[in-house]
Amino acid sequence: MKMMFKNATVLMTVLISSFLLMACTDDDAAGGDPIEPEELGSGEVKWEETETEDGYVIVTNDDGKTLGYSKDSGVELLQVDGYAFKDLNNNGVLDPYEDWRLEADERAANLASLLSLEEIAGLMLYSSHVSSVSEELEEDQIEFLDIGGRAMLNAANSASTTDTVQWNNAMQAYAEATGHGIPVITSTDPREGGVSGIPSNLALAATFDSELVQEMGNLTSIEYRLLGIGTLLGPQIDIATEPRWNRVDGTFGEDPALARDLTSAFVHGVQSTFDEDGNDLGWGSYSLNTMIKHWPGDGAAEGGREGHSFRGNAQVYPGGQFDTHLIPFVDGGFNLDGETGSTTSVMASYSIAFDEDETYGELVGTAFSDYKLNDLLRGQYGFEGVVTTDWGTVDDLEGGFMQGKPYGVSELEKPERILKAIQAGTDQFGGLNDRDVVVEAYELGVEELGEDVIDERFEQSAQRILNGFFTIGLFENPYVDLQEAELTVLSEDNQLKAYEAQLKSIVMLKNSNNAISSNDRDEKPTVYVPMIYVPYEVDYFGVVTEAEWTLPVDIELLEKHYNVVTDTPSETLTGPEDEDGNPTVAVEDIERASAGDLESVDFALPIITSPVNEGNYFAGFGYDQENEEYIPISLQYEEYTADSEHVRQESISGDITVTEQVSGYVVEEIEEKENRSYYGNTAIIRNYEDLNTVKYASETVPEDVPVIVAIKADGPMIMSEIEPYADSILVAFGWSTGSGYGIEDEALLEIAAGKVEPSALLPVQMPANMETVEAQYEDVPRDMESFVDSEGNEYDFTFGLDWSGVIQDERTERYNVPALVTPENSGSE
């Protein structure tokens, strides 16, 4: 690797090229040498250019790649064999990385070999969350570009299509004018707004429909690409074997085979571009890179505690099924049916794979784990793509609610952590905006490994990272056509496709006496929709939600479908005083609809949320901040104290501290493991009043009036609390965001009204009680006793009802079999 790009070297290359490369063919170009161009416009010209209304130029090559560039950037065109190419580094010759006729990996290797240390260090950065986008780049964004940062996380979900596209185009023009003209690749987590509302992963899993999931992946790629996004930070493909984990809703469920199939389908849909007839064209203009996460699976969280908090930093394997969690990765994401073959990148989990005997390698987070990355991912499974850390992995542990996650390596300085991660197989650092600290890591590497070794390793990461840019064509045209974006993103057709997928994802668990049946009448039913209590909350970003009684769905939407009867908030408030001395809303401050008010309703429709535990990602679930003790994460509304025989009195995982004990001349090191047991402690549930809302509706409506309970669930829950009070139960996995990631309220209302027949199945088990939750193993799928309702139906994996009864079809036949344990792909063992 050339750590300094010498002008003299470039000049010599140009002079030699003038004499030796005038008659180069395509085969010569593949050899890796620059090509001397023809005079622009001479001979048989196979290209034409057009200036767009958006301020950039489009160059169309006959039977070749379409180019885009800004005339303000200083980039000039080169002509070779009649075709146009961009001279991104302004050296007057066509370098292999500028030659769109070559394969992506060859171009990436060429460019990586030309970059300086500082340029490679810039590529290894992945920006912190960018929440503001517009045509005018902000100072911190420009600073990031100036240090060579080329991976931006676009977290501006609420930004308009126009602002997002103009921001992308402004960034690309700025980047194009610097150095080697490396474009910017922006990424996003699954977006909660500004795009058509495809269902959450768990909701998609409830469809058990690989074709639909592929279609949703393709819809995602088209809309995201037209927002300038080049990488999806997803899909999340962890197997949800621990039902208390608060990221179950982001997964494809708890079954390895289902997660494998839907991973393959979604990644295929996102990465491939398809023609009008649905033919797979492979990488193309509507392709995104995917970054499947979180290697090697993050669903075996002890006690359900989540890795964004250090109290949830461990995965545990009491059932010995570490390999089971690899299945969606190695049999799914690495083994696509489509032309792109495999995901291009992987996000490493925060977590430590905990075993005191270090069965799964050193007790460090995945980004620092030689076993999990070099041995397993790179070695056994031969993965050649990018490995990116989750955001904040190398930052300091002491950092407030957005603290770093340097699990197992917190005693190291940041440059040492980065070097350790690079040596383990990591390429890119999520949330890191500091190039200097990467350069420091390089310098440490020179001292520890030697210059040749660390140079080769840095160049290897650069090549991997750049390959994703070339694969999706960013070096040819990183600009977005604003008019096409405005016509396509959130188009009526796309929103309809997403909405139809939402309807297919809603599970009906109970339907006594056909409480929900086909209803094609135009007249609106009269429905009691009780209000719900929203408690006071300050979230992890400091945003305050004031306590209130409110309808669970917007009144205008409800009245579109129903004649609505509801409750009335009290005029006199009795809650604690706020900072201005005014009383706030208490649970008691509600006047429920009376039995007389409800005499003529056609049905009651309580719309509630599955139990919400106290805590958040960063403060941690399963820990009582006030009393500084571990507490259980509960899946029920009623009070739960963890004191059954199945509750661990000694946790499997815990931070290990080493102290020295001196006896005479002997110094002995004593290891002590923290005990994270919550035995005897009680869970804290924020939305207990949701259960009372269901009870009130059931006890107050006339006996012959059905109660249809609609639940917005983020995973498994204890249904024994709800089922006795419900004639019908509907479950929508995900949350309602209007136009974004989740399930829209209207889909629930249509199913409840009998306008659309439900067809979804449970992608997770609904446990019988908290005792079976405690008894199950965090790493083992489908090992709980499932709830059996009053109709005799077991709420197990693959269970669901339609209007005719229990669904039995090709989906249940395929997946209602014993859970897989071992990956089919054993790698190079």
From TrEMBL:
Residues making up the signal peptide according to the UniProt record: 1-23
Alphabetical GO biological process terms: glucan catabolic process
Catalytic activity: Hydrolysis of terminal, non-reducing beta-D-glucosyl residues with release of beta-D-glucose
The Glycoside hydrolase family 3 N-terminal domain, residue ranges: 143-467
Keywords from the named record: Glycosidase, Hydrolase, Signal
InterPro entries: Cellulose_Degrad_GH3 (IPR051915), GH (IPR017853), Glyco_hydro_3_C_sf (IPR036881), Glyco_hydro_3_N (IPR001764), Glyco_hydro_3_N_sf (IPR036962)
Molecular function GO labels: beta-glucosidase activity
EC number, UniProt record: 3.2.1.21
Membership in a protein family: Belongs to the glycosyl hydrolase 3 family.
PANTHER family per the UniProt record, alphabetical: LYSOSOMAL BETA GLUCOSIDASE, PERIPLASMIC BETA-GLUCOSIDASE-RELATED
Name of the protein described by the UniProt record: beta-glucosidase
